[in-house]
Every structure is written in C-alpha cells, then in structure tokens.
UniProtKB/TrEMBL annotation:
Membrane-crossing residue ranges in chain numbering: 37-58, 70-88, 108-126, 133-158, 170-189, 265-289, 309-331, 352-371, 377-398, 410-430
Pfam families named among the record's database cross-references: Ureide_permease (PF07168)
Statement: the UniProt record of this protein carries the keyword 4Fe-4S: no
Keywords for this protein: ATP-binding, Membrane, Nucleotide-binding, Transmembrane, Transmembrane helix, Transport
InterPro entries: UPS_plant, Ureide_permease
Molecular functions per Gene Ontology: allantoin:proton symporter activity; ATP binding; uracil:monoatomic cation symporter activity
Family of the protein in this entry: Belongs to the plant ureide permease (TC 2.A.7.19) family.
Topology in the lipid bilayer: Multi-pass membrane protein
CC terms in the record's Gene Ontology section: membrane
Subcellular location(s) of the protein: Membrane
Gene name of the record: LOC104599070
Organism: Nelumbo nucifera
Protein name, entry field: Ureide permease 2-like isoform X1
Amino acid sequence: MIPVSKDFSGLDSLISLSTEGLNFAGLNMYLVESRGGAIACMLLALFFLGTWPAILTLLERRGRLPQHTYLDYSITNLLAAVLIALTFGQIGHSKPGMPNFITQLSQDNWPCVLFAMAGGIVLSLGNLSTQYAWAFVGLSVTEVITASITVVIGTTLNYFLDNRINKAEILFPGVGCFLIAVCLGSAVHSSNAADNKAKLDFSNSYNNGKGNVEAPLVKETFPKKNETKDVEDGDYYLEKTEFGTADFLIELENKRAIKVFGKSILIGLGITLFAGVCFSLFSPAFNLATNDQWHTMKEGVPHLVVYTAFFYFSISCFIIAIILNITFLYHPVLNLPRSSLTAYLKDWNGRYWAFLAGLLCGFGNGLQFMGGQAAGYAAADAVQALPLVSTFWGILVFGEYRRSSRKTYLLLGSMLFMFIVAVAVLMASAGHRNTY
C-alpha cells in the first residue's frame, strides 16, 4: 500500500493563492482596448456584415416573402445581443466606474439608453428598407450606395463626437476613396443594367421589356445523368440555365418574391437612399449612448458600457422590426402577396438561413461597436466597406455580372480595388480612446 502523507500544512496557503489568482483574472470586464484588437474586431465585423445581406437576398430570390424572412432574422439578431451582454458584459466584478451589464440595468442612465434605442430604431428601418432595395437595385450596388452615405455623413459625425481622436489627415482621404468607389459602383450598375437590357432584347421570352415573362427557353436538350429530366419527354434532359443569360434573368423573375420587371428603378434608388441616411445615424447615436458627449446623465452616473448599450440598441431594433413586419403581413407593400401570422409560423422554407443571417448581423454589429469604443467610431466605420464581401457573394452565389461586357468587368475591378484602399486608409486612421 502506498503511504499517504498527513501533512496538510501547505494546503491552506495553496488554496488561498489559487483563489487570489482566479479573482484577479476576473476583476476586469472584457473590453477591447488595444488598436490591434480593435482592427481584428472590425475585420471580423466586415465579414459578418457583408455576408448576412447575401443570405436574405438568396431567400428572396427563392421566393420566400421578405416579411417572413425578416421576422426570423430579428429573433436571432436580438439573441446575439443578449448573448454578448450576458457573457462579455458579465465577466468579472462590477466596479463604480465600469459596472457590468446586470448592474447597469438598474441605474439611472435613461438619457443614454434613449440614444442607444434611437440608434436601434434607425438601423432597423435601414435594414428593412435594404431588403426591398436589393431586389430592385441589386445586392452590390445597394450596399455601395448605403455604405457611401454612411461613411460621408456618419463618419464625419463620429469624428467630431470622438473629440477628433482619429487622424484627420488619414481619415478624410479614406472618405474620399469611398466616394470614388461610389461613383465607380454607380457606373458598374449602369453598365450592367445596359448589358442585361441587351440580353433581354435578344430573348424571345421577354415581351418588349414590359414585364411579360414566359418560362425560360431551353436551346439544347441531351441525356445526362447530372441534368434535370424533362417531365414532358422522358428521353431528354433539360439543360440548366446558365448565370448571366437572358433565360436566367427571366427564370429569376419568375421565382423571386419581389417582382421587378417593368418597375421604375427610381423606386429602388429612393429606398436605397432612405436606408443610407438611416445607416449614417445609428453609429453616432450609439457613440452618444456610450460616451455621453452631450453630458445628459446625472453627475456620478457611469457611462453605458458597450454591451449594455448594445442590448438596449437591439431591443428597440427588434420591437420596430416586429411591429412593421407584422403590419406588412396583412398590408404588404410593392404588390407582394398578403400573408398572416399563421402562414408565417408554418413557413419553414429557409427559416434556418434567416436565423443564421440574424446571428451574423447581431455579432457583426456588436464587434463593430466593440472596436469603435476602443479605436474611435469613425475608424470603425471601415466596416462600411462591406460591399467588398457582398459583391463577392453576389458574384459567387447569384451570378451577378456573369456574361457582362468588358467595360462592366473593368469598372467592377476598379470599384473593388478602391474599396480595399478605403478600408486600409480608414483603419490606419484609428486612434485610441482613454475612457476607463
């Protein structure tokens, strides 16, 4: 038998030392404070915020009603904020100058809470608007226009709200790069629209551009195991329509929920401009909520930490989304079919994709705000280069710009290059906030 020592004289001191180490590790709430950490948050947010619009666009193109999709999206978007608040916002013990999430819920901080909720309202309106704009203007161009408005208006407001902690000599040239990219993006849209019109003009399936469409014509049929069988003739198989062809454009119009053929492009551009103005205001509102530059709170009341502000921000975003989309179920816009809560609850076609989009958007916004609190919200607006990601998904998944002209490809490459330059310049302007 192995002898067991009964000498426990050092056990008390060992337990005490371990406990002290654990307490020390949990003293501070997790906050992004370094410039490198802030840039990492912005890059991850850039990917998330550029990906979720592609998912919602995919569902609309498959025929799912946008009201159903946005209700699902809103649920997980709020869930992401709650998860962030209950994890990062609750790490460690509360301190007088930096209370954790639960502690702040009972404090008298309503002026800043209202700023956060105002930011959530305008973001919800912007996101809801873009869901309809994508169908009319296209994913890439919609994101370009809204991002540019956000940068020009929102970044300028954040620069002054942040007491000019960003390097102006770097920041504003970055804004200029965005404006150049916007002009190129508009040119891409114009050139691609001309290409599509030329394709449809040569198609026998399109009746003089008036929105009368028929099933796509198939030019070749041949027996292949990996093709779809023609149900009317068992001896042949239908060739799958290729991205960028006139037949593909007509097939898309037949499938999608929002019909766009024959409708004025001004409808989509108007919705897009409205969304851009909304997007330009939510980040400055969140900035005011976390830093109280207008001194609206009582003396001695700590500022909202980023996680608490994001929670209230997401609550108002969720409420507005639920109210508007339930209204649109029974009173749809843009000639969409009428639906109901019962029909929504039974519609599981694409629901999990909508849930994923909500999580990506929620975590993307949270990461943007975490990076902005550390490096300045003007620099965090570098995530408005999300059209880089959206254009990638648009080309890869939706076949945008396939079979387009050489002019369109040249303009598209120039736009993407300018966006890359804009992202790099805005991130290089990052400062450092000393708040805690």
